[in-house]
Specification:
Layout (H helix, E strand, L loop, with lengths): L11 H9 L11 H40 L6 E8 L2 E8 L6 H8 L9 E7 L12
Parallel strand pairs: 2-3
Antiparallel strand pairs: 1-2
Helix pairs in contact: 2-3
Length: about 140
Amino acid sequence: MRPAGAPRRQHQGAAEHEEREGGQTGGARDGTPQIGLVFALVALPLAINTAFVYAVAVIDQRVERAAEAWLAGVEGAVLTQVSFSGSTIEVDVRVPGPLPDTSTLLDSLAGQVPSGTPLVVRLELADHVRRAVAPDP
């Protein structure tokens, strides 16, 4: 037992370690490089993912504007959705009659989306959507 106020005695191993390290603390022992490495391993994928999501949103918006302009001349035509399936852009439309020429849409997307990106237009004919009502007994 040590008397009150007496200095604590260091273990022999701790004193030798301090002598070898020059009495300094920090560096690799305090975890700073490990924290930097963990930060880099987390921040880099997050930054890449953020850039990818932003790029997809920009392309989505461009396709949506082009598709709305493409359908503007068709009365009753509605753009229901623009989505991505892998690297393919899918445009869902509902029209009451014939679909406008898709080459017009493709031409308007030239330079707006990455070259060679597949585009699929899914068509739902509005006059084929019918409601069935059961007859009165």
